[in-house]
Amino acid sequence: MLDNHQKNIATFIHLSTFSRFLIPFGNFIGPIVLWVANKEKSVFVDEHGKQAINFQISMLLYAIIIGTISIPFFIFNIFSDFDFIDFNGFSDFHINIGKPSALLYIGGALGVLAVIAFIIELVLIVNASLKARDGEHYKYPFTINFLK
């Protein structure tokens, strides 16, 4: 039988990921500290802690992948008219904003995808917190299980 303390700890593990808006890497530090301090006391808290940490690691991995893919599209678009062989090219270097290329559209689409993923992440964290508050088990979608 779950008591309110276990439910509250599991809820705060999920909600502590929002500390990233105040503390760098708070989305990792908060859940790890709460999970490590309480994982031996409850299987319920242990499961929610692992899920929260796995989800945050997965989201970081996805953000790195999207960033790694999208940044070159923006860089290639900015330097598309630049002649790298001509060493005097800096005298007439300009950025042409009026003529967007397909690279800019692809990079922009990946940027929009990153914003949508961020909003989905926030919704999933709130949903997991509500499930933990109610004493239910929750498994984040799109999660790679690093901690088992």
Automatic annotation (TrEMBL):
<keyword id="KW-0472">Membrane</keyword>
<dbReference type="Pfam" id="PF09685">
    <property type="entry name" value="MamF_MmsF"/>
</dbReference>
<dbReference type="InterPro" id="IPR019109">
    <property type="entry name" value="MamF_MmsF"/>
</dbReference>
<protein>
    <submittedName>
        <fullName>DUF4870 domain-containing protein</fullName>
    </submittedName>
</protein>
<feature type="transmembrane region" description="Helical">
    <location>
        <begin position="59"/>
        <end position="82"/>
    </location>
</feature>
<feature type="transmembrane region" description="Helical">
    <location>
        <begin position="21"/>
        <end position="38"/>
    </location>
</feature>
<keyword id="KW-0812">Transmembrane</keyword>
<keyword id="KW-1133">Transmembrane helix</keyword>
<feature type="transmembrane region" description="Helical">
    <location>
        <begin position="102"/>
        <end position="126"/>
    </location>
</feature>
